[in-house]
Amino acid sequence: MPYRFFADPAATQVLPFGHDPGLVALSVAIAVIASIIALQVATLARSSLKLSHRMLSIGSGAVALGGGVWAMHFVGMMAMEVCFHTSYDLHWTAASVLPALLAAGLALSLLSREQIRPAQLVGGGILVGAGIGLMHHGGMLSLRMTPLLRFEPLTFGLSIVAAVVLATFSLWIREALLASGRFSGLLTTAIAGTLMGAAITSMHYLGMASVRFIGVAETDMPTASEGVVALAGFVALAAVIMGVVALGGNTILKYRLVVAQLQSSEARLQAMFDTAVDGIVTIDARGLIRTINRSALKMLRYEADQLIGRNVSVLMPEPYRSGHDGYLHRYRQGGEPRVIGIGREVTAQRSDGTVLPVRLAVGRVENPDDDASRQLFVGFLTDISALKEAQAVREHEASHDALTGLPNRRAFFLMLEGALSRVRRQGTAVALLFIDLDGFKAVNDQHGHHAGDQLLIGLSQRMRGLLRQTDTLARLGGDEFVVLLEGLKNTPDDAQQVAELLLLAAGEPVQADGATLRVSASIGLACLRPGCELSSDELVKLADDAMYRAKRSGRNQIRMAACENDSVVLAGH
Length: 573
Hints:
The protein is α+β, with helices and mostly antiparallel strands. 55% of the residues lie in helices and 18% in strands. β16 (510-512) and β17 (515-517) form a beta hairpin.
């Protein structure tokens, strides 16, 4: 028999009714406040990481919004001014809140999601609009009065459509405002809540436009029921209190969650700080050490209580120690940072005074109040001593002979270039000895290559012992050696004496693998004086040619070649 609710009686049987403007305004205010509170709860729910906390927020927000919607509807009903006596059925009145709670729960469930698809938005709008419409018209059926309650079909249908459209719009508007990024979070919530509250009250009063009261008037003019203002105020206050409690509870819950997350994050950071392989040191704007981790203490050979509160310059050798405080002072005065954000290699000083190379990276901790005196800096120290040692080994291997440890061909030619530059710049002279062992192949053939290697090592050590610290002995390869002599008082004669000493040393026996090994040497001596423009290759060739003349002359000899004023002079032993 639903048709009987939509009967269209004669116009003379329809009773007039109106609304109290003050109570209408109060109902709008209730809807707006409830919507703003509910949207803020949805924001808190969206940021909750735990499902249980999110569901608790949605549930409490649904109670606040659903209760606010129901309170708005109830106050709107009490705002009616009719010409007959009205009362309410307690059971129908209580039951009418259920659709409002379900609609509010669905709305907040949608709004608490990270992303809402258009289909979900429309579907949610249909269900929310239907729920609020059901709450409204169900609440209307709780009225107890002498006249009959009927609905005008067209307006009734429009009110349902409006409920769905306005509900969908209310859900969409907040997402659109958030996506635009034009307003802050609180302002977005206030705007969206105001629009949602207006949409909810529009649903109610559009529904009221379809109502028809049919019967006989009991008073001359439509009036409000006695005591309705006090009751409406009580309902409004209860709805606001319920919303504030829900919002406050969710805010406290969110605060506790944030505190728990901060504590967890702090514990993780502390664990990372304590277990980090690199050293980490935190200092303040005055350069005083605030924190230091275990790796840094182990690296620098300190205990924590020896460093906390002391100036970080204690970890620096001079001259960096003296200049550190001045650098911090200039930075506090507005100077440009020269090390912040730039990794570089520096030298740190341990507690025992020894130093070690480290790679230092300094970061600045962001200071919200921009107070330079409260600025903190974090330094990350990486011990690169092993890297430096490996680098030194690689450089040594690249420039030295693997067997004898003497400079190799590459290193020797670099030294020779430097010596020739000094000849041109300072007007000094240099001498170059080219040494080739006689009979070395026979040693290898008779005693093996290991014995030959031992012979080369022994002879190189013996020759090195006869030279000055400023002289250079290098192995070019095989059984060929060169000696670079600089700073001699009488270059040809002094060089000749050195060559004779080396010739005698090469002829002395060497013990290797239980055998006595003997060789001799052929030495070419080349002298270069200022005014003779020879390159390093030409000077070596000059000495090499002199060495071959010694070989052709019977070996175990010295032959000399000198360059004076671009002329080459040859001489014998």
